[in-house]
Amino acid sequence: MKITIYGAGYVGLIGAVALAKVGHDVLLLDVDSYKVAQIMQAISPIYEENLTQMLQEVLSAKRLHASTDVELGVAHSPLQMICVGTPTNSDGNANLTYVKSVVDAIVTHNHGKEKKIIIEKSTVPVGTHTLILQWIEAIGGDLDLYEVASNPEFLREGKALYDFMHPDRIVVGASSSWAHGLFSELYRPFTEQGAPLLFTQVASAELIKQAANSFLAMKISYANMLAEVSERVGADVGEVTQGIGLDRRIGAQFLQAGIGFGGSCFPKDVQAFIRTGEELGLNLGLLRETLQINARQRDRLMSKITQALGSLHDKRIALLGLAFKPDTDDVRETPALYLVRELLGRQASLNLYDPIAMPNFQKSFKASPTLHYASNLQDALNGVDAIIMLTAWEEFIHADYATLTKTMPTKFIFDARNALDANVLRKNGFVYYGMG
Ligand SMILES: NC(=O)c1ccc[n+]([C@@H]2O[C@H](COP(=O)([O-])OP(=O)(O)OC[C@H]3O[C@@H](n4cnc5c(N)ncnc54)[C@H](O)[C@@H]3O)[C@@H](O)[C@H]2O)c1
Ligand SMILES: O=c1ccn([C@@H]2O[C@H](COP(=O)(O)OP(=O)(O)O[C@H]3O[C@H](CO)[C@@H](O)[C@H](O)[C@H]3O)[C@@H](O)[C@H]2O)c(=O)[nH]1
């Protein structure tokens, strides 16, 4: 079946490729003509496992086309799926400007006056569907032609294609049987493989997305709270989270303590949910504390560094890992942004290294005498006084630090992800600091 997708970013491009892969005829629209041209040449603008190969496959099969032409996009299908960004406004609210511009474009270019389902796949605050109807009305659109549905996306970066194609569940908030039929057909290739398709009210689907991300963020902050307690009482947070995670009611996932969560989703979505609460006259204090614990982890790491090293002036520090998590080139809200700012502010000199995310990070911080972008791990570790491991890339987990740091005077290593083998490092003369 045919579908139009607006926004060729992490969600839109992955969704487009995955839906084309299972046989649908996908038209992917973006306002960025350079991105569109790249996609048409099978060059992926983002780094994701297997993406380039699958992109080539669906382009050759002519099941995916990318374009900037909204007119084509509107005419292509009754399914109009919005996957544009919803970043945080300065007041913490989700910025719906990009969503609105797509809605306006759909209504303006619906020359054939065909019935359309406008699908919120972007993460939006609960209640956005009613706003969309108001926007349509405000520009003279005929409300009888439009149904708004919510179909939130739960993929993780780094595992995006896999997650899209093997979802734990597909959530669709839609009211008409026409929409239910179209969504059932769209997702049949996944439901036939066992993925549950949950139809809900539109508001429930919107709320499910906000609730899921906030719950996962809260779980991480809970583990980080336990890390702080563990340090005080001589417990090992890894053992504690393993011990509670084996209880199936709690579950082992998302209990990895460390520097805290970053990325383009959790920080903004938790913030937006808190704002939703405020607008409803509700204080979602649990989520405020979730963000506070998250910020405190970064401060706690900085305290460990300054307590161990003293003045950072004239110290050179290796910072390993710039992406917000492994297997992605995404540096949005990455803890590395905060750490680099803090460390430079204290006059440290830095060697930065990441296997994939360096070009994206370089857009925020240009190279300088105090900021060296290393060409490989050995280059990053040459002549440093301390190592901070910030992103748990396999390369960092399995590195032979003893051999790579032969000339290091005192071997300080700060493991911001609790991912390294502390015993082996200590045996090799390192002064090891973890997070709990
Ligand atoms: N990144 C993730 O892992 C993830 C997962 C689930 C949900 N989400 C949500 O999905 C949405 C998109 O996130 P993303 O990370 O893919 O964003 P992104 O920034 O990677 O991509 C957004 C794309 O939309 C394009 N765009 C902007 N205005 C447009 C318009 N009027 N018409 C067509 N294209 C337009 C931009 O050029 C860009 O290519 C957000 O709401 C996000 O919260 C993201
Ligand atoms: O136990 C854990 C798990 C994760 N993290 C951190 O949490 C952040 C987010 O990680 P992850 O959830 O794996 O990545 P995202 O790609 O941001 O995916 C989240 O955000 C997406 C956007 O909404 C959702 O679709 C996904 O379901 C949700 O997992 C990263 O900084 C991780 O390092 C931890 O600190 N401890």
From TrEMBL:
Domain UDP-glucose/GDP-mannose dehydrogenase C-terminal: 318-422
Top-level lineage group: Bacteria
GO MF terms, alphabetically ordered: NAD binding; UDP-glucose 6-dehydrogenase activity
UniProt xrefs under Pfam families: UDPG_MGDP_dh, UDPG_MGDP_dh_C, UDPG_MGDP_dh_N
Binding site for NAD(+): D30, K35, T86, T123, E157, K268, R332
SMART domains named in the record: UDPG_MGDP_dh_C
UniProt pathway annotation: Nucleotide-sugar biosynthesis; UDP-alpha-D-glucuronate biosynthesis; UDP-alpha-D-glucuronate from UDP-alpha-D-glucose: step 1/1
Active site per database record: C265
Amino acids binding substrate: F154, L155, R156, E157, K209, F254, L255, Q256, A257, G258, G262, K325
Transmembrane segments: none
Enzyme class: oxidoreductase
Entry EC number(s): 1.1.1.22
Keywords: NAD, Oxidoreductase
GO annotation, biological process: polysaccharide biosynthetic process
Reactions accelerated catalytically: UDP-alpha-D-glucose + 2 NAD(+) + H2O = UDP-alpha-D-glucuronate + 2 NADH + 3 H(+)
Gene3D superfamilies assigned: Cytochrome c1, transmembrane anchor, C-terminal, NAD(P)-binding Rossmann-like Domain
Family stated for the protein in its record: Belongs to the UDP-glucose/GDP-mannose dehydrogenase family.
Name this polypeptide is given: UDP-glucose 6-dehydrogenase
Record organism: Entomospira culicis
Organism taxonomic ancestry: Bacteria, Pseudomonadati, Spirochaetota, Spirochaetia, Spirochaetales
